[in-house]
Specification:
single chain; 163 residues; alpha+beta; 31% helix; rod-shaped
């Protein structure tokens, strides 16, 4: 008696298995593309904040280095006797595009606003000082006022003491 030949299962994948694998792969690719956009947005925000903190740090250092016999800062000409906000515009690279109160230029990206509460040319007690960097500069182009519209900002409220 002869035995019948053994049946082999068909080789390869079925259409159902291929469809499921393609669905899983498409879902994973969609998730990766969604995370890519989030990562790019996060990176742009980080770059903007890093540059803004650099600007804020240099302006604060300039204010702290004013000698007791002077009333304005050396690098940015910020007056210690003005109580209204003083505005300086900066490029993306952190370079000033003009002086105090000048309008933003085409290169202006950051807006630095400095306010000294109870400002006077000579003070021996600490004065509350607000330093605010916002961007983009053209969103609120009126110098001498606190900005109202910005997509990004960093702010420090500190005390300034002159000896």
């Amino acid at each position: 008696m002869k035995r019948p030949p053994a049946q082999r299962p068909p080789a390869g994948f079925s259409l159902v298995e291929i469809s499921i694998a393609l669905g899983v792969a498409a879902f994973c690719l969609l998730a990766i593309l969604g995370l890519l956009q989030t990562g790019i947005t996060s990176e742009q925000t980080t770059v903007g904040k890093t540059a803004a903190w650099g600007i804020l740090s240099t302006v604060f250092s300039d204010l702290n280095s004013i000698p007791a016999d002077q009333t304005t800062s050396k690098a940015y000409n910020i007056s210690l006797s003005t109580t209204s906000p003083q505005t300086i515009y900066f490029t993306k690279a952190g370079k000033p595009t003009g002086g105090i109160g000048t309008a933003p230029t085409a290169d202006s990206y950051y807006r630095m606003s400095v306010g000294i509460q109870g400002a006077s040319a000579t003070f021996a007690t600490p004065r509350l000082t607000r330093l605010l960097v916002t961007w983009p500069a053209k969103a609120d182009p009126v110098p001498g006022t606190w900005p109202q519209k910005a997509s990004g900002s960093v702010e420090v409220i500190t005390s300034l003491l002159r000896d």
